[in-house]
Specification:
181 residues, mainly alpha, 8 helices, 80% helix, elongated
Amino acid sequence: MGALLDELVSKPQTLLTALSICSTLMLGAIGIFWNVAQRKRDIKKATFDMLLRHIDIPDYMKALRRISKHVGNAGPPLPDAVDEEFKESVIVLMAHYNNLAVAASHRMLDAQVLLVSRYGSMKLAWDICAPYVATRRVQLGRPLLYAELEDYVRANAARYQAYKSRELSRRPRSGGMAEAA
């Protein structure tokens, strides 16, 4: 190591070459970190853009209202007793939420933003529609129908509970919300 330092000090050209290499490596590292940060910001922006764009789709909102009617009723309808309106709503919501789950699993969407903004409705829709989806899987011979959504709901249940608990403890609310926690 001492011989290398002696050579660097005695030959300015070698010192300049070493400094040039070090500064190039440092600038390269800064560039890589900048690109990673930019990519994360772009993914968050794309996630918000996509989520906000889908809120205005009438079929999605109609399907969400139809499925939500089953909350508080006797639970999800029996697979043999669903009407055409329910079937149409299942197709719209499950396809939409399954696409979100696929994009999240491939890191095309920001996982935390999706968890905070859509997990609750994704889980609710899955819980209501799961019996019907199970029947359709058998009828259609497609055992993986909406499997990405099912996996996403299961895999993120603990993360969502942790988020919900943390948020409720940070932001106590008066009335029903604070008491429900």
